[in-house]
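Suppose a colleague, Dr. K., hands you the sequence of a protein chain of 105 amino acids and asks what its three-dimensional shape might be. Before reaching for any lab equipment, you can write down a predicted structure in token form. Begin with the sequence itself:
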Amino acid sequence: MFNIGELREILQIHKEVKVADKNTGMSVKKLQKLYRLRCKKKVQSSKEYIFANKDMESQTVKFLIFSRRDIYLDNVVIYKNEQYNIKHISPYGNGYVELICEIRR
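The predicted structure, expressed as tokens, is then:
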């Protein structure tokens, strides 16, 4: 188990929305902020590889949050100005949720 005081850091949950651009009239994907939540971050795994003669890094991160709001797999997590894709959502108990996210750099 964990202490409630361990939820010190802050993340934001965003949703991708298609918006018409004012100048061109074409649809553009933008992020709309939904929630701002406290979290605890833990790096689950990390790997580096070479793809098309370029160094790449893939990191899987686990966020523990307290939320009774609806969070879906197509939402995006922004943590310290980095964008994470949600891969799995699992309830932890008593309103706590565990988000398993992935980032590629």
